Amino acid sequence: MSHLNFEFEAEHVNDKEDNLAATERERYVRSIRESVQRDISKLLLSSRSYVNHERGHSSSNMTVTQALSRPRGRMLHRENKLCQDQRLEDHMDYATVKTFQLREQRLKKEVVDAVEIGERQRREQSVKAFKEKRMQLKGEHEHLQRKENEAMRQYGRAISSYLYEKVERDLQGLKEKVKKQGSTALMMKHTS
């Protein structure tokens, strides 16, 4: 009978509306609070004294400043470092060291190239093996498909010939039955 109690339903609807209004008010109040908090944060961050208080003062002193302001030495490339470290004044010594460095560099490059060539060949072989396997599987699939199609055609022919023979037998049986009924009807006519 509660479904006929209209006052209960009206109160229930009003409660739902009150709950919806309360959640909307809570959302509105929450959004206002967040907006005010953002504005306060922006205002505080624009104040230099607050930022210094939060981050702390920079701790630079005279020795650090002097160390940073000193001129730096020329940065040398790795290849020239050996020649520069030994201060090779003699051109023949420099040429010997430079030749040694260039030979080492060439050998490293040859090793890297050999590794890259080996990787490339390995990748090519794996791709070739994959393609061969795929073609083999494709050929096997096509072979199985042809066998299945041929089996279906043979099955269709067998069913077709069976149905043809069955229809022929049924027609012969029907003709014989009609002949019998016809002869029986003639006999009945003559006997009556």
Task: Name the features.
single chain; 192 residues; mainly alpha; 5 helices; 87% helix; coiled coil
Return the structural class: mainly alpha
Helix proportion? over 70%
Overall 3D shape: flat
Report the mean per-residue pLDDT as an integer: 81
Q: Distance between the terminal alpha carbons, to the nearest Å?
A: 83 Å
Order of helices and strands: HHHHH
Strand-residue fraction? under 5%
Number of helices: 5
Largest sheet: none
Q: Indicate the low-confidence ranges by residue numbers.
A: none
- Per DSSP E runs of 2 or more residues, the count of β-strands stands at 0
Using only C-alpha atoms, the radius of gyration works out to: 51 Å
Keywords: Coiled coil
Coiled coil: 127-184
List the topology elements:
Blueprint: H1 6-46, H2 48-55, H3 62-69, H4 78-86, H5 91-191
Tell me what the structure shows.
There is one protein chain. The protein has 192 residues and is mainly alpha-helical. The chain has a domain at 1-56. It has five helices and no strands. The radius of gyration is 51 Å and the shape is flat. The protein starts with 5 loop residues before the first helix and ends with a helix. The mean pLDDT is 81. Residues 127-184 form a coiled coil. Keywords: Coiled coil.
Put the structure in a nutshell.
Helix content is about 85%, strand content about 0%. It has helices at about 5-45, 50-55, 60-70, 80-85, 90-190. The chain is an all-alpha fold.
